[in-house]
Amino acid sequence: MFKLPQKRILATYIALAVIIGVYAWVQIAHFTTAYQEVDPDGYLVLAKRIARGGPLAVKAGDPFMYQSHVWVENRAGEVAPKFAPGYPVLMAVAYLLGGDGAMFLVSPIMGAIGLIGAFFLFRLWISRLAALAAVFCLAINAMVLVYSGYLLTHAANTCFVIWGMFFLWRWVRGIGRFPGLWAGLLLGAAVTIRHTSLLLAAVLAAAIAIKWIEHFRAPKPISRLRRDTLILLASYGFFLLLLMIYNWAVFDSPFTTGYGLSGEQGAFSWGNIPKNARLLAAGLNYTGLFLLFPLGLAGIFLVESKGESAMRFLWLVPLYLLYSSYYWAPDGKAYFRFLIVTFPVIVGSAFALMDRFTPSLWRKAVAFALLLSFLIFVTYGNTKASLNRTVSDSRSRSLAFSARRVSKTLNDDAAVFSHSPIFCYLGTRRNFYLYDLNKFTASYGAKTFKEGVTPRRHPVRNTRFREFYKGLKDADLQKKKRELIQGFLSHGRQIVYLLPHRAVKAEQDRLSGSFQWKLLDEWDVYSMSAKGVWQPEKWGLYEIGLPAERS
Question: Distance (Å, rounded) from C-alpha 202 to C-alpha 236?
């Protein structure tokens, strides 16, 4: 028979497993191996380059490839995604284990591991019951669920930060063997996932200061503290050194990131703070952490020692101020997501504050149950809508289905011509080339490569594309498309169009009857909007070939 403490521990882990199960159920229900923006293309392409052993940056002679803000160019004329390499490294492992689709599992898995880490971190701060309630708040949070189910860096970054902070708190309190080693490695690795996690070095510095102040207040042999501090700093610096090597190899300087080439590394201004700080505060209070944001702010200062309060403060405020100064600040989740990495310290501090109100377990249980029920009642509709709109929207699911269907039908290096909603992602599958047909229109060139466009683009590439499109009319671009297709066919590459049936005749006319069209497959794609609701229509996969007398 289990003794009472053992029963409580077992019940705690069962409850934690149930919370992770709720999170997993939502992720499985909305799991979609596609998206409707170009940013994830960069992560997927870099992940496959890493998995295949490089090159990480490639020459790009085709003016219709690598046109989005994702891509930057080094002095050698080689093109690479502007992103940090840490997340693609994790995706590369997934790709080697399970192929293209497996890379989409990284974020939801990192989200689950992060929730487990949050529980253990919270247990250093608060009671077992409060820790479970705090983790449940994170597990049902709309932004946590959305960005753990979406192919961006936030879930992975937050996971590494949570576990790094767990070990850093243990290091400060002198718990365990070599916690500084793990704290340094995990927090350093977070910087390779999102560059701005470098600001969390302030928390690490505060932890070191706490330990050394304690030493001088109660002197002990200094050799162990010196060793532990060096281990912490060296392990933290390890991944920073690797990141600098990557930057040097790909972007020409150890201190230049891809965002430096795009002009965004320094796109922060004190003048943006007054407006953006209010926007972020409102976003965190209402959209991000309803009810919990102000409680968390108070909890940071009203619980724990002054030193550990400083650590929590430095986890939140530097990142808050940095993104308040950023040039790109749309009102919505797309902007508020930058601070998801601070959600654990805000939620944990909020529950730490509430945990101090009464020692009664039952009163806490009732209070937490009422709070969680209220949060679910208020936020359920928005959470469901956010997941349906961002993660598992009908257009993304159509693209995911189309990608799987096309992958089974076409040659490994086929070139695909299509348009929205199949304007991204498909080009990252296997070794496909994807061409958005909008790129062959003069209006696209005129509006896409203007000076001062946001998100910012690498000025060198933006100017080059602007000059390329300058003076070209639709007829000129259609001619270039025909030449591109003819060049592919002459080298034996398979060429296909993926279009709605209603658009085929117009595209055939644009190609001036120069090619034969053969229907390979057809299926429904959600690409028509009727009263704000996307509706399916029949699309066809057509192989393009030269006329018999020319082939």
Answer: 12
Cβ contact 417:539 at 8 Å: no
Residues 6+ apart with CB under 8 A from 184: 164, 204, 231, 232, 233, 234, 235, 236, 237, 238
| Helix, coil or strand: residue 67 | coil
Write the CB contacts of 197 (distance below 8 Å, at least 6 apart in sequence): 157, 160, 161, 187, 190, 191, 341
Contact status, residue 143 vs residue 193, Cβ threshold 8 Å: no
Max Cα–Cα distance, the chain, nearest Å: 92
CA dist., res. 135 & res. 147, Å (int): 16
**Rounded to an integer, what distance in angstroms lies between the CA atom of residue 191 and that of residue 85?**
10
Residue type present at position 354 = M
Question: In this predicted model, what pLDDT tens digit does every residue of 221-247 receive, in sequence order?
Answer: 888 899 999 999 999 999 999 999 999
CA nearest neighbour of 499 among 517, 478, 481, 486? 517
CB-CB contact of 230 with 179 (8 Å): no
Question: 177, 165, 173, 175: which is closest to 307 by C-alpha?
Answer: 173
Which one-letter DSSP state was computed for residue 326? Answer: B
Q: Note the pTM of the prediction, 2 decimals.
A: 0.95
Structural Rg of the chain based on CA atoms: 26
Q: Is the peptide bond prior to 459 cis by the omega test (within 30 degrees of 0)?
A: no
Token pair in block for residue 185: 């490695």
Residue 362 contacts by C-beta under 8 Å, 6 or more apart in sequence? Answer: none
CB distance 209 to 168 below 8 Å: no
The predicted-structure confidence for 511-520, as pLDDT tens digits, reads as follows 887 799 999 9
Report whether 147 contacts 106 (CB < 8 A): no
Residues 82 and 513: their CA atoms lie apart, in Å, by 40
CB 133 within 8 A of CB 125: no
Residue 530 host element (H or E)? strand 516-530
In angstroms, what CA-CA distances link 431 with 80, 414, 426?
A: 16, 7, 10
CB neighbours of residue 527 within 10 Å: 22
Distance, first Cα to last Cα, the chain: 80
pLDDT in tens, 362-393: 999 999 999 999 999 999 999 999 999 999 99
DSSP 73-126: E-TTSEEEESS-SHHHHHHHHHHHHH-GGGGGGHHHHHHHHHHHHHHHHHHTTS
H or E segment at 526? strand 516-530
